[in-house]
Amino acid sequence: MAKKDLKYFMRSTEAEIVTAPGPKNFKDEEGNVIQFEIKKLTQEEITRINEAYRRRSMATDKKGNPLVANGEVIWKTEKDGARASRHMIVEALQYPNLKDKELMEYYKCVDITDMPLKVFPNADEYQHVTRIVMQALGLAETISDEEDLADAKNS
Questions:
Q1: What CA–CA distances, in Å, run from 111 to 64, 92, 96, 116?
Q2: Do the Cβ atoms of 33 and 26 come closer than 8 Å?
Q3: Can you give the residue ranges of every domain in the chain?
Q4: What predicted TM-score, i.e. pTM, was given to this entire model?
Q5: What's phi and psi for 9, nearest 5 deg?
Q6: 98: Cβ–Cβ under 8 A, 6 or more apart, which residues?
Q7: How far out from the chain centre does Cα 46 lie?
Q8: What's the CA gap between 155 and 152, in Å, rounded?
Q9: What is the rounded average pLDDT of the residues 81-86?
Q10: Fold (topology level) of 32-140
Q11: Tell me: the pLDDT tens digits for 43-61?
């Protein structure tokens, strides 16, 4: 049996950057699809982003009175999953950097969570970017071109 040593768990915390092809509409001067650079966020960063878009409030009835069960106030939790996903996209994308001041000014945008919607207004582009980022983060399964083709034929 291998010896137990905690040094195996002392890994580098340097961020890993992966590349993935961007949407087909984004091409360089030579006509090649631009490669996006995606930083793999840690689980801690992903959790922090998700928690930032979660609100807890007291559950109330139609008259505005708090709901009580077994002598305790009932709390309701509201999550803005779409906004949290957009925030993850902004944090993960290193190129293009959606937090870039010049890019945000160009799109007249002050909230970073609106940037993916501004930069990728076409539904196909937005879905492509969302898919490649979430796959890089390990939050979505990788789909091969063959599976895409099979799904398209079946629908």
A1: 32, 16, 16, 10
A2: yes
A3: 32-140
A4: 0.76
A5: -100, 0
A6: 89, 90, 104, 112, 115, 116, 119
A7: 8
A8: 5
A9: 94
A10: rbstp2171 (3.30.2220)
A11: 999 999 999 999 988 888 8
